[in-house]
Every structure is written in structure tokens, then in C-alpha cells.
Amino acid sequence: xKQMTAAEHRHxxxxxxxxxxxxxxxxxxxxxxxxxxxxxxxRVVLEKVNEWRxxxxxxxxxxxxxETIESSANGHSDYTEKFSLYAAxxxxxxxxxxxRGLV
Length: 103
What we know:
single chain; two-stranded antiparallel ribbon
């Protein structure tokens, strides 16, 4: 992976903040959706990731990619931060994805 420039890093942090805001808003609804909260949160993150990828001409990712990064964040004390960070990396194209899928 190439080193990010300061501008690229600031952009990724802005994406992370956007994803985190949407994720936290969805997390507030967990009690309303006890059976589907995880799917709902993954859907929100998927939508945000693909929204940002579209802005830069990157191909959309699939739900399986979001499930993989969610699984990587699962169990961390800072779960929401990790999930948002991994999603931002995926959104800007510096995460584990290539043309064939996850690496």
C-alpha cells in the first residue's frame, strides 16, 4: 500500500466521520429493531461506502465486503470507530479490495 498524502488522509477522515455519523444514527435504533439491527447497520455502511466510491469513480462493493470489515471490527472496545475506519478505507480504495474481491 502506498503512503497517503496529507490531503488523502484528511479526505479519508472526512469519509470516516460521515460513515460514523450514519452508523451511530442507525445504532440508536437497535432497540426498535432487535432482530435486524446488525443487517440494518451493515446496509447503512454499505450505502455510505458506495456513495463515496461513486464520487471517485470506484466500482461499488458488495454486502459481503461490509460483512468482512464488520467482522474485523467486532469484539473491539472501539467497535464503531474500527468499523467506520475500515469502511472509510474501503470507500477510498485503500482497504483489502481488488478487482476479484477481498484480498
